[in-house]
Amino acid sequence: MTDAPTKPTKPTLITVDVGNNPARCRMLIYHKGLEEQIDLKTPGDFGGTSSASYRALNPQGKIPVLLLPDGTAFFEAVSRATALPPAAALRGRV
Length: 94
Known about the structure:
By secondary structure, the protein is an alpha+beta fold. The chain has helices at residues 20-31, 52-57, 77-90; strands at 12-14, 39-41, 65-67, 73-74. The chain has one domain (15-89): Glutaredoxin, CATH 3.40.30.
């Protein structure tokens, strides 16, 4: 288990290689050319979906989660899709 920072330096998408919702988020990142502006991590980087640190980000324990540098975590699909473009603007890319 790796201790991940609670407040990343750039937006972080907590995702897995399989699953429709994680794939949709990654597809949006790739389509908008945000690969350099958003880190991709797995739930394992936060102790797994059942861990207290992950449940602090998403009480439902589901994947994916978009974690912003200020510590805000989005875990509902509409919220993530809405938050991705502004998250990119934090790094100077619209």
